[in-house]
Amino acid sequence: MTEPADAAERRGRPAVVCYPVETLPQPDMAMLGRARETLRKVSETIVPPRDARTFEAPAGHFFRIVSIEGPQVGDLNLWNARDLSERFFSGKTRALHATHVTTGNRLWSTLPNLRPLATITHDTLGWYGFDADGGGVHDVIGTRCDPYTHRLLSGGDYHHCCHSNLTRALAAARNMDVRDAEMHVHDVLNVFMCTGFTKQTHQYFMKASPVRPGDFIEFFAEIDLLGALSACPGGDCGAEHSSDVAKCYPLKVEIFAPAEGALAGWRSPQRSAYPRTHGAS
Q1: Does this model's pTM top 0.85?
Q2: Exposure of 38 by Cβ count < 10 A (0-12 exposed, 13-18 middle, 19+ buried)?
Q3: Residues paired with residue 217 on neighbouring β-strands, in sequence order
Q4: In which domain, by residue range, is 51 found?
Q5: Is residue 9 part of a domain?
Q6: Is beta strand 62-67 parallel, antiparallel or unpaired with respect to 216-221?
Q7: What confidence tens digit (pLDDT) does each residue in 126-158 have?
Q8: What is the pLDDT of residues 191-232, one digit of tens each?
Q9: Is residue 49 situated within a structural domain?
């Protein structure tokens, strides 16, 4: 197509942030920081390589996803433990915060709820920032590797994609048929994954995760949560995912309780007060 005469002017219009967040409710990081100093571990779950496990994090508790043996990416789903229809909304989290999240950012829930499910309280990879390729860690861009895309691109079936892993884990935890459980599996927080968009073609890329044993990302559960974490079959995702070739490692989820009184005055956020009338008479 021939460029119009005013093409440069059109391209040169200023960028405007879609959602100014000055009025966005902010977590009390000082209170959470004080509570962190009192934490007591109450349980842990090991997530095997190329598989997933669920965990429960009651409101007011903290949970950590920990690298324990080698560089490994994890795909995280979160639900309201009492209502699976309320779940993590990666798209709105991306719009309100950024393509990659870290300490102080929150994981928001689906409409019509739109409230914080969890707040990130510590991130040992917070130093990474964005590299020369434009890559960052803990993205809310990618959807999760799944057997449908695998079949579309390769013609074969692979049952240890994160989508399938999360489906099996949820089905086992809630005694559901896998086909029913699958309908609750949703776009993920790609924990420890290093991703971005190529500068030339703007394609979603991944590169080897900078995570090392001992690194963790920590969250504060704003409501009663059911979580599921898949240890991605791509390992550190430095070469490929959905693979039996990549070197993969387990991940650990730890649940912590703060001392009694450490969260004095805190309460779980309420669902959105929007009346859901949508202008209809």
Answers
A1: yes
A2: middle
A3: 65, 123
A4: 45-59+67-117+124-221+232-257
A5: no
A6: antiparallel
A7: 999 999 999 999 999 999 999 999 999 988 899
A8: 999 999 999 999 999 999 999 999 999 999 999 999 999 999
A9: yes
